[in-house]
Amino acid sequence: MNTATKTKHIGRNISRIRELRGMKQEALAQAIGISQQSVSNIEGSETVDEDKLKAIAEVLGVSTEAIKNYSDEIVFNIIGNTYHDNSSSLNYSCTFNPVDKIVQLYDEKIALYERMLREKDEMMARLEKLLNK
């Protein structure tokens, strides 16, 4: 039985990585200086010119090898092995006391208002002095 190796579809890999990055075709096209239709054509082709592949890889923040060897299965394995849902545990430890922070911000606000009032009073005194001359 002859088992042929499955060829990688580079365009599809580019599309998947772009989508995982939350990037639209228009944004990728603009970043590499081509039209959106050209990006669509690239994503539809099995092979991509090495220079274009390098430019696309740079914009997507991955290596050309990552694009060539991309696999949804590998991505899901990585996510499955590294993502931990801690919503059931209430071990949230804040590094500061939120109430203290609110009090600090309130004190800063009061100090700012007092400074503004002093400056207003000084300005009014200067204006009155100019008017009395």
Automatic annotation (TrEMBL):
Gene3D superfamilies from the UniProt entry: lambda repressor-like DNA-binding domains (1.10.260.40)
Transmembrane regions listed in the UniProt entry: none
Pfam families: HTH_3 (PF01381)
Keyword DNA-binding set for record: yes
CDD domains assigned: HTH_XRE
InterPro entries in UniProt: Cro/C1-type_HTH (IPR001387), Lambda_DNA-bd_dom_sf (IPR010982)
Every HTH cro/C1-type domain range: 14-67
Alphabetized SUPFAM superfamilies for the sequence: lambda repressor-like DNA-binding domains
Annotated keywords: DNA-binding
UniProt xrefs under PANTHER family: DNA-BIDING PHAGE PROTEIN, TRACRIPTIONAL REGULATORY PROTEIN-RELATED-RELATED
Name this polypeptide is given: Transcriptional regulator
Organism: Flavobacterium pokkalii
